[in-house]
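Posting this for the archive.
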Amino acid sequence: MGGDFIYDREWALNYGKFARVHGRMVDVVETVDFLEGYCGEGGALELGIGDGRVAVPLSERGVRVEGIDNSDSMLEVLAERTDLVKAWKGDIADFRSEQRYNLVYCVYNTFKALFTREAQLACLRSVAEVLDVQGILVIELDVPTLEGFVNGQKTTTIFVDHDNTILNTHVHDPLNQNLVSSLLWFSGTSVRRLPHRARYVYHQELDTMAESVGLELAERWADWTRSAFAEGSNRHISVYRRTSL
């Protein structure tokens, strides 16, 4: 990821637990099933690979997976977890590779961590340069929901059980489509705080940005099982192909 959003050692070590508590381990098999269908001998590149939540099970199916992340701590956790995945430190807004890939993917809203439109465009431009001729880009993003803000601020409850309470606080900048947020995770007597920034993107704008760098929308789904994307969908899985060399 780009900018100043970097997971430290504590968050890196606890990211798997957070993903489970947040319900993001449930759809891993569906995610990998979807992505595997676009992988060929050219392999796959994950943007914001983290601890390998998706990359590791994808690599275990025989796919050659590489990845980029800006967190040394996350890359250390990934390296401790597997030697099947090659990953390096970098900024997904501006990367280069001599390798060409059948698939580049960016999941779990990682694309929104690029805090400006320029950074998001730069990321798409970098992707277009490393895709092979028949290459595919897959992006998973939430559909922006801006209800509930009062004076530009909102606090949401993500998860509550006997042991954990996870809250997210947001300040909204509508002119730049930015959210400056802090995730607060209360677990037992400990509190973890993760400040983060995001630039939300509507799917129509994403299509326009992709077109400007030589990518065109091929498919759009509401989830990894290919449910139809409709007015009430809360996220989308968008698949892009190259239109120019």
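The radius of gyration is 17 Å. The mean pLDDT is 89.
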